[in-house]
Write a structure and sequence with these properties.
Blueprint (H helix, E strand, L loop, with lengths): L2 E4 L12 E6 L2 E5 L5 H7 L8 E5 L5 H4 L2 H10 L9 E6 H13 L8 E5 L11 E9 L7 E8 L2 E5 L8 H8 L5 E7 L7 E2 H7 L8 E4 L7 H6 L3 E2 L4
Parallel strand pairs: 3-4, 4-5, 5-6, 9-10, 10-11, 10-12, 12-13
Antiparallel strand pairs: 1-2, 2-3, 7-8, 8-9
The structure holds zinc ion.
The site of zinc ion (ZN) has 5 residues, from loops.
Length: 238
Amino acid sequence: MLMFIGTGSAFNTALGNNNAFIKKGNELFLIDCGSTNFSRIMERGLLEGIKKITLLQTHLHADHVGSLGDLVGYSYHVMKPQQTTKITIITPKALTEDVAGILRSEGISDDQYHSIEIDESYTPENMMGITYIKPYLVTHVPTLTCFAYLLEINGKTIYYSGDCNMIPDDILSKLLTGEIDLFYQDTSKAENKVHLTLQQLTESIPEEHRHKVYCMHLDETFDREEAENLGFHVVESI
Ligand SMILES: [Zn+2]
C-alpha cells in the first residue's frame, strides 16, 4: 500500500531517511520530507507527471522535515505551471506554526503552499482514495511534539507510527481485534528509548498478528532476517 523513498533512521544515510509515499496518476501523497528525501525524490523521478502534492507531517526532526523547504520551493518555482501553489501540507494544530516558521526561515512564504490543519480527525475528499486521517499524540523525544496517524486508504485501515517509542493502547487493541489492516512501526535494533525496539515489538504483538506489521525507520544494526523470522515484514525503498 505505502511505498518508501527511504527506510532508514536519522543517521542511516545508506538507507536514506524514512519516508512513505503513494503516487497515483498526477498526484503524490507523502508522509514527511526528511533531509535526504528531496534528492532521492529527484533521483527516482518521483515528481515526473505530478501536478498535485499532499504531505502529512509527523514531527519536526530533521530526518522528517529537513528537505521540505526544497520540495515546496521546487514545486512552486520549477514545476509547471511555475509560480503556482501545488503542495498542501497537513499538520495537527501543534505543528502548523512550527512548520510555517521553518519554511519562512528558508525563504518559503506562506503563499507557496496550502495548509490544512487537523484537529481530532480529518475526512478528505478527492485525495487519492484517502478518506480519513486521525492523529495520535505519541512519545518520542521529550523536546518534540510527535504524531502517529491512523488512515483509511481505499477501504484499508493503516497505522503509521511516525517516530515513537510506544504503541498507543487504542491502536494495539485495534490491531489485535482485526480493525487495522496494515501497521507501520519505526523499529530499532538498538535500545535507544526514542523508537520501539524489535524486542518491544515482539513482546507487544502476538505471532498471529505480525503479518500485518511492517518495520520501518531502520537503524544501522537492524537485522532484516531476524525481523522476518519473527513474522514481521520489513519495508523496502523504491
Ligand atoms: Zn524523530
